[in-house]
Amino acid sequence: MVSLICGHNGSGKTRKMIEMANSEIAKVQGKMVFIEANNKHIYDLDHNIRYINTKEYGLTNEEQFHGFVCGLLATDYDIEMVFIDGLYKITDACNEEKSKIIVNRLEQLAAKFDVKFVLSLNFDVEDISDSMREKVYA
Questions:
Q1: Measuring CA to CA, how many Å separate 17 from each of 40, 75, 82, 108, 109?
Q2: What is the pTM of this model?
Q3: Contact, 27 vs 51, CB < 8 A?
């Protein structure tokens, strides 16, 4: 399952994701991962959440990001939940079309490996297609 948190810069997406991750960590049976493009929020998260700064791995586009996520899931079968903050900073997905491709790929991984993905997109809910809008976390 993929859930989206939408809004423009400064709308509170990251804060919402951090709060979600910190509250969900007590409920998950497996492991949780929080991915973003810097170390800015490393100390805001519970210490049981694995924090990954993608800039340390040189990711620049959606192909590299997909491979990275596949590798992450392949090396740890216990991952139950993955938060991805600032997709546009991690990849070159700065429009809905590219974001949709990534979301569809994550949906396939979620179904195959029973992982829940939560990711932030820099779009208002009104600006995305109906198929993407169905995935918006309320």
A1: 14, 24, 11, 22, 20
A2: 0.89
A3: no
